Amino acid sequence: MLKNKIIHIIPTLSGGGAERLVIDLAEFIDKDKFEVSIICLKKGGVLETELKEKNIPCYFISNGKWPLFLSFFKLVVVIKKISPNIVHTHLFGGDFYGCLATRLAGVKNIISTEHNLNFSEGFLKLFLKRLTAGLIKEIVVVSESVKKYLIEKGGIKKEKITVIYNGVKVDKFLKSEKNYSCQDREFVIGSVGRLEKQKGYDILLEAVSRIKELIKCLIAGDGSEKESLEKKIKELGLNNRVQLLGWQKNVSGFLNDLDVFVLPSRWEGFGIVVLEAGLAGLPVIGSRVDGIEEIIKDGENGLLFDSENVDDLAAKILDLKNNETERARLGKNIQKKIVKNFDIRKIVKEYEKLYFSMINKI
To answer: Rounded to two decimals, what is the model's pTM?
Structure first.
C-alpha cells in the first residue's frame, strides 16, 4: 500500500506544547497509512534526542549561526526531495517560511496548527502571517478561544478553521493512586512552563509572598524571564520557599512531588500542562482566561482565579492547603475528564481524518 507523506515544519524542537504535539503526531500516526518527516528550521532543541530515540526522520535547515533566510532554498530543496502529499506547519517561523517554501516546491496542500493566542506578536509578524494565510488550505486551532481570536483579530473565515484540542499521553502521566495527605510534610505547589510574561509566574510569586503559612513552590521551565523572576524571588524574600528548577525532562516525576498545580497565565491558547497535571491527580488552580476555561469548570474539576488578582490566587491556594478532601475531589474529577476527552491517540485520529479529507480532494 502506497503511504501518504506528511511533513511537519516547526522552528525548533524546544520543550513547548507545539513541539510536543509534532512529536506525538509523528509517533502515534497510523504507520501503515502515513509516512511522517519533521523539518526543523534551526538546530538546538531539547527534544532532539527524543526524536532520534523514536527513529522519526528529521531534517535541520540551519545550525542557528546564520540568518534563516540564507538557508531558505535549502528548505525548498528538502521539501521537493520528500515530495509530500501534505505539509503541516507550526508556529510563526514554520508558517511563514514553511508556506512560502512549500509553494515554491510545488506542493499545494498546506495545513497549519495555531497553538496559542498571539497577543505578544507585533505588527510585522501579524502582517506576514496574514500574507501567508492565503496559501494555507486548513487552519487547525487547539481551542475555541484560539478560533475566536483568529476570526476576530486574524480576519480568517470560520469555514477555514477546524478545532482539534491538544492531547496528552495518558499512560505516561496517569497516576491511579494519589496520596492527598500532607500532614507530616510541607505543602508543595508548583507549575511547569516557559518563563515568559504570558505565563504569569510573577503573579504566582506575589501570591506566595502573601501566604503566611508554610508552603513550598517549585517552578519547572526556562525562558527570557528567568533573571527577572530570580530577582523578584530575592526582593520578596522567597529564597527558602521558591525554587526555579529549569527545564525538566521527567515532567511526570516532577508533578508527582506536588500537592497542587497552579497555572497563572495572563492568556493561554489551551494549556496542555493542565492535562498532564490533571492526569497526575493534582487539583489545579488556573487563571480565568481563554483556553484554560475550556478545561477547568470552576469548583467542579478545578479552581479559577481572576487573572492577575494576587489576593484571589493566594486565597485559593490556602483553601486547598487546608482542605484535603477538596484536593482529592477536584484532582479525581479533572483526571476523569482528561482520560475521557484528551487522550493523544484520540487526537491523532482526528488529524488523520483531516489529512485524508485533504488528500481525497486532490
So the answer is: 0.89
